[in-house]
Amino acid sequence: MMSKYIYMDNAATTPIKREVLEAMMPYFTDKYGNPSSIYSIGGQSRNAIERAREKVSKVFNAKPQEIFFTSCGSESDNWAIKGIAYANRKRGNHIITSKIEHHAVLHTCQYLEKQGFRVTYLDVDEYGFINLDQLKESIRDDTILISIMFANNEIGTIQPIAEIGKIAKEKGIYFHTDAVQAIGNVKIDVNELNIDLLSLSAHKFYGPKGIGALYIRQGVKIDPLISGGAQERNRRAGTENVPYIVGLGKAIELACENIDEHNEKLTKLRKRLIKGIFDNIDYARLNGDEEKRLPGNANFCFRFIEGESILLSLDMEGIAGSSGSACTSGSLDPSHVLLAIGLPHEIAHGSLRLTLGDFNTEEDVDYVVEKLTEIVARLRAMSPLYDERRER
Amino acid sequence: MYSEKVMDHFRNPRNVGEIEDADGIGEVGNPKCGDIMKIYLKINDDEIIEDVKFETFGCGSAIASSSMATELIKGKNINDAVELSNKAVIEALGGLPPVKVHCSVLAEQAVKSALYDYAQKNHKTIKGLENYNPEEDEIHCH
């Protein structure tokens, strides 16, 4: 039906790379043993998991025994925050996070507030950066955890993680970062950055959905989230999802060995996309910082029009993107991230996020710019707000 | 997510634009909520809606609801047009997702508001709009 399909929603998910799928396949059929079993096909699965664990640990300069496999990024975030909170309650009950975290962090913190924990939600500036002075001022004697995302999923802003890690270390507070969007896009050394816990999810870097991991620095006091068998060194029960763990290992290896090339390519495409849009569409704004952002992330607001109608129109042209408009989220308000950077509701409603990936080309970018220019013009021609602007 | 009819009206909205010498204009909604509808009516001496146009800021179903509402009232007598309900708009569109029902409500209100404006300007009363208060009819974000 459609001649081509241009996927520019790589922050939502990515396709599995062929090599990843191939690495996974034997573990569904021939190599199906339970890794906890002592016979040889059990051992085969065990070895596959440990090889994957090693691959993950290598990319952060961590130790293999500091990597724990989970079912997804949200589980990793839940585990990190609830696990630290409950295990360290005697030390204190205060947590610091930011207003622009993923809901897996925000809603977990809100849940903990109901359990009697206190949470400080740091503001962000117009580009989405937290304020380090506000962070320092928010630290109390009973602060047990700082959880700040590495890079924002909507506007791509990369936080000053090294500075946050330094502050946390000086104060003896655990530092967790949701790095779901950062893996494969930013080089991360957990020791250099003083990160104690780090969440990741395979499907954001060309691995399968339904598998994630949590890095937990050795010595960190944390409760399990899922109780049961002795898997993952007694910390995360449940029979290991062997093929998916293998897929995660392969995907992270591929993503991180090509990271410079990937970043250079995506940064170039992103700049082309942003320039194309600013050259062709007026009343457009870029959300997030121009430079300190994920290489493939571009997030815009187009005034006088609404995000869902942009997405529907793009889809009709075979282009996939996303929006922080309330109409697309199913909630009453537009994106909490766009509101936190200070955008008024009516402007936040007109947001469009385009996230580039390894499979996008310059031709894709040019096609999107061309179609988007037509779409914005068409929707504005229908908009009474655009009309009023003209009359003024 | 949307019916074919909704997508058809989103893709090819009927009666888009403005009427410069409109006899009645209604605008409802709020940019904060993410949707505004403006309806222009041209009404002849026999109180027939000769022409109708709309401008909408909003999501796909807001645009489709406006388009459908204009089709449903075009050529009608004002006393029939005032009876347009949001349910009729939904039905004509082949259904709307529950979270989008408010778009059809907005379309109904935009039509009423435009008819009220016409009635006010021409010192007429339209049955059903005697106690109409455009301020009160402001929809809240939901």
Walk across the major sheet of chain B and give the strand order. Answer: 1-2-3
* CATH architecture title of chain B: Alpha-Beta Complex
Number of domains of chain B: 1
Please count the helical segments of chain A: 15
Task: Give a quick set of tags describing it.
heterodimer, A: 392 residues, alpha/beta, 3-stranded antiparallel beta sheet, 15 helices, 12 strands, globular, B: 142 residues, alpha+beta, Sufe protein. Chain: A, 38% helix
Characterise the protein shown here.
The complex is a heterodimer of chains A (392) and B (142). Chain A is 43% helix and 13% strand. Chain A is an alpha/beta fold. In chain A, the strands form 3 sheets. Chain A has a 7-stranded mixed sheet, sandwiched between helices. In chain A, helix 1 (18-24) runs antiparallel to helix 8. The model of chain A has no long low-confidence stretch (mean pLDDT 95). Chain B is an alpha+beta fold. Chain B has a 3-stranded antiparallel sheet. The radius of gyration of chain B is 14 Å and the shape is globular. The interface between A and B is medium-sized, with 27 and 27 residues.
